[in-house]
Amino acid sequence: MSKFVLKRIFLAILIILFGSFIVYAVIRALPTSYVETIARQRAQLPGSKSYAEWLEQLNALFRLDTDIFTGYMGWLSDAIKGNFGDSWAYNVPVTQKFKDVIWYSFALNIITFVFQTVIAIPLGITAARKQYSKTDYGITFFALLGISLPSFFLSTILKYIFCIKLGWFDLYGIVGRYHEQLDTFGKILDMTKHLILPVFVLTMLNVGGLMRFTRTNMLEVLNSDYIRTARAKGLPEKTVIHKHAFRNTLIPLVSYMSYLIPSMFSGSMITETLWQIPGIGYISFGAMTQGDIPFTMFYNVFLITLTQVSLLIADIMYAVVDPRVRVN
Fold first, then answer.
1. Could you give the CA distance from residue 191 to residue 176 in angstroms, rounded to a whole number?
2. Are 121 and 214 in contact (CB under 8 A)?
3. What's the start-to-end Cα distance of the chain, in Å?
């Protein structure tokens, strides 16, 4: 097992390096850069240097005057030391900005993950147990509805109904106007109120896929010979479903759910932007639109690393979920 884990860690590092290089090369190839905006702004100051001089100085500072491979190696040497540079758009160290905003995204996505797991897996099991019934069709329709609805459309509908017409929630933000005047419990309630609709949007978007995946795998397991044998022995249906069938359904579920966490952090960018929640997705979107190479690089490497860590955990969990799985 230790050899397998070391091999997976080595492969994960290679993938992170290759992925970060591709991202760096793509960003460097973009036609616009935030450096040009900075140079143009500083050149307009009284008594300042010319635009060309500022552009040359800033390009040398951020290693943009070298070829892509040399610039990437310079970025990588700093990144290994934990130095990801200063954000061009937010004018603070990248890691500091990341620490300031990641907890909003973490809370939003973890709450969504819990809700979609609690909703999707039981409904998927119920749909499989009652295949081709009205319950199955209703659950399938609900799942397809969640998969098909774009986040911007669902968010707009919710804003119109609950924020504009009913006035129950604010249109934007993570806190209300009088947040600082509230006590600790009041501040928690205020933030919770602002997270209700974004969490509902993300849950609706993600619950359908997990629900369909659970139903499909549960149907395959329920048609197995050992399930028919368990029923023939007279075991209670709850024991057959929860002890025998669901345990084997967990194996593909672990693989599927390992992709959910990194996909939520990347997929929540649109939702965070629509609701203006100052999480990592919303901040990264602003950095990307302004050509902020340091923050954009850090955000993409963060997603690549998160994906590899999730896959590594999934591989290890195989042996925990199914005792038959052993790694030589």
1. 8
2. yes
3. 7
Q: Which residue range is the domain that position 286 belongs to?
A: 106-173+199-321
**CB atoms inside a 10 Å sphere around CB 326:** 10
- Residue 246: CB atoms within 10 A of its CB come to 17
Question: Based on the structure, what is the number of domains in the chain?
Answer: 1
Q: Is residue 220 part of a domain?
A: yes
Nearest to 201 by CA among 268, 300, 248: 268
**Residue 149 structure tokens:** 């609805």
What is the C-alpha to C-alpha distance for residues 11 and 26, in angstroms, rounded to an integer? Answer: 23
Q: Phi/psi of residue 86, each to 5°? A: -100, 140
Domain with 129 in it: what CATH number? 1.10.3720.10
Tens of pLDDT, residues 237-261: 888 887 778 877 777 777 777 777 7
> For 109-124, what is each residue's pLDDT tens digit?
888 888 988 998 899 8
